[in-house]
């Protein structure tokens, strides 16, 4: 296999050594008569498949970052170990994708230089391990975190047009080494097979926009109003969650609703707390080590007031934003205590924001009393009842009778035969399609989706017309004055046609150019083959 013009032996050697793990010059490889066999080709296709497999996992890893704080909390509840596992995920994924990318680039360059693709056995083992690791990651995702598959489908509404352009560009560049291989290989069947597969892939990519839909493909004048922001446990990236500091930080981010969780102490005082245990967000293990594993409702209010509800935030750094807090904010965070519902209602009343909450735990034997005690605190606080957004489903009819002004939020979609009209729903963002959001909007039903942290996801929901979102990143979404991208359908159609046409012309040029290069090298190859045949005949005689 001869080198094409312009490919020096030194460059070929530099490419060959890391790929084959053999420090031998390209000229020696030629003298040995090594060629790329079908076995070598099969390993190249396996390498290409592993690269694509890892690339898809990289995409998933980036998408699930929106929900990764939930995974960190889950691991803490199971193992009592706090770590930002998103860093581990990204570092491991970066290593895998970098390794497979470097090998693939080396293989393509070797093919262009006319060198044999002799993949070393060490690389073969590492590629198999890479495929197994990524497969295990996908399997674990499907078993433990199946809703993220829905997140991936939603993400395609934000990334679909750009993934199409990237895929067309990548496959277009692949035309160069593919043309080089086709014009060099002696197997007609392999040539035909590769051409058919490549042409089918390109036709599918050229027509892919027919199946791409996104709510952000619209005219500027059709864009709905920006969704309102609900602070998820306040502003948990800027202050310890479910504290008065978090509420005030959320107000600074222009949130309209403070979303929180309420529990009731052993002596009947409602207080703000998400977890059933106090270990994650307080120093209960230091103050009450023998009772640390008890349910939050087993502590009386006097005990709860002794706990530090802020230092954990500075020590564990649940979000990267903790590092950028000012000295004043750090001091304030360290002084936070568990607030009662009454204190939170007073702060919400003074700040003129609404408060939405879950009442936990729903399966408690004394849950009805929890509802009554909570309602009593609300009515005594003096806060306008329209600022209370009631989420708990248990004993909802009693709440409607005792506090008729409270707004009721339902954690489900509307039913066909509703006795009373549902005016507000609160659902995970994975549970509603863009079409359903538009339909609810037309029917004057307020839709709040949670938890939305990434700008790309906020942009898709904004274009869909969602009423509000619950977020950890209110300080980020506050600054967004416009969706990340918005394209009129005519503009997108023009981009689609131009990209496909340019790609087609480049592919034709690549095959034409590589054909000319192959014709220049054929005479030299023919003379060499004749000489080798004569030498072989003389040796046999």
From TrEMBL:
- According to the record, the segments passing through the membrane are 41-65, 85-113, 125-143, 163-183, 190-212, 493-513
Give all residue intervals belonging to the GP-PDE domain: 227-481
Sorted alphabetically, the keyword list is: Glycoprotein, Hydrolase, Membrane, Transmembrane, Transmembrane helix
Regarding the membrane, this protein is recorded as:
Multi-pass membrane protein
Q: Which Gene3D superfamilies would you find in this protein's record?
A: Phosphatidylinositol (PI) phosphodiesterase (3.20.20.190)
Q: Which InterPro entries match?
A: GP_PDE_dom (IPR030395), PLC-like_Pdiesterase_TIM-brl (IPR017946)
Q: Which domain of life is it from?
A: Eukaryota
- One GO cellular component term: plasma membrane
One GO BP annotation is: lipid metabolic process
Where found, per UniProt?
Membrane
What Pfam families does the entry give?
GDPD
**GO MF annotation, one:** glycerophosphodiester phosphodiesterase activity
Q: Member of which family? A: Belongs to the glycerophosphoryl diester phosphodiesterase family.
What is the name attached to this protein's record?
GDPD2 inositolphosphodiesterase
Q: Which organism is it from?
A: Leucopsar rothschildi
Gene assigned in the entry: Gdpd2_0
């Amino acid at each position: 296999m001869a080198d094409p013009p312009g490919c020096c032996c030194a460059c070929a050697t530099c490419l060959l050594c890391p790929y084959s793990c053999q420090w031998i010059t390209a000229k020696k490889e030629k003298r040995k008569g090594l060629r790329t066999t079908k076995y070598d080709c099969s390993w190249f296709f396996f390498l290409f498949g592993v690269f694509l497999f890892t690339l898809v996992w990289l995409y998933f890893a980036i998408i699930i970052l929106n929900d990764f704080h939930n995974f960190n909390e889950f691991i803490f509840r199971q193992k009592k170990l706090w770590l930002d596992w998103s860093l581990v995920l990204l570092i491991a994924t970066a290593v895998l994708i970098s390794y497979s990318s470097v090998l693939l680039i080396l293989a393509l360059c070797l093919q262009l230089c006319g060198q044999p693709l002799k993949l070393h056995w060490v690389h073969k083992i590492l590629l198999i391990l890479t495929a197994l690791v990524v497969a295990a990651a996908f399997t674990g995702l499907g078993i433990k975190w199946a809703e993220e598959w829905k997140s991936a489908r939603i993400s395609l509404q934000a990334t679909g047009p750009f993934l199409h352009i990237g895929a067309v560009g990548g496959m277009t560049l692949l035309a160069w080494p593919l043309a080089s291989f086709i014009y060099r290989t002696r197997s007609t069947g392999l040539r035909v097979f590769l051409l058919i597969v490549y042409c089918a892939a390109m036709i599918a990519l050229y027509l892919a926009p027919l199946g791409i839909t996104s709510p952000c493909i619209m005219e500027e004048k059709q864009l709905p109003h920006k969704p309102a922001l609900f602070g998820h446990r306040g502003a948990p990236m800027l202050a310890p969650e479910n504290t008065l500091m978090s509420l005030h930080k959320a107000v600074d981010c222009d949130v309209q609703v403070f979303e929180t969780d309420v529990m009731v102490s052993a002596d009947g005082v409602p207080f703000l707390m998400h977890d059933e245990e106090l270990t994650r967000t307080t120093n209960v293990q230091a103050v009450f080590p023998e009772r640390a594993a008890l349910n939050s409702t087993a502590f009386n209010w006097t005990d709860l007031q002794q706990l530090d509800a802020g230092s954990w935030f500075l020590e564990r750094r649940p979000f990267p934003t903790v590092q950028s807090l000012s000295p004043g904010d750090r001091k304030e965070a360290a002084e936070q205590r568990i607030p009662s519902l009454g204190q939170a209602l007073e702060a919400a009343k003074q700040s003129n924001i609404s408060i939405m909450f879950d009442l936990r735990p729903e399966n408690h034997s004394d849950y009805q009393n929890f509802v009554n005690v909570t309602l009593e605190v609300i009515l005594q606080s003096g806060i306008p009842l329209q600022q209370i957004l009631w989420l708990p489903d248990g004993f909802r009819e009693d709440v409607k009778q005792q506090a008729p002004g409270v707004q009721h939020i339902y954690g489900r979609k509307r039913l066909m035969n509703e006795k009373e009209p549902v005016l507000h729903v609160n659902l995970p963002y994975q549970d509603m399609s863009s079409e359903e959001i538009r339909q609810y909007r037309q029917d004057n039903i307020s839709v709040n989706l949670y938890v939305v942290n990434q700008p790309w996801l906020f942009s898709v929901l904004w274009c869909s017309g969602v009423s509000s979102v619950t977020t950890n990143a209110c300080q980020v979404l506050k600054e967004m004055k416009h969706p990340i991208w918005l394209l009129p359908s005519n503009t997108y159609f023009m981009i689609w046609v131009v990209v496909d046409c340019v790609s087609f012309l480049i592919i034709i040029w690549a095959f034409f150019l590589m054909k000319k290069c192959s014709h220049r090298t054929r005479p030299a190859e023919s003379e060499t083959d004749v000489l080798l045949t004569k030498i072989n005949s003389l040796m046999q005689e």
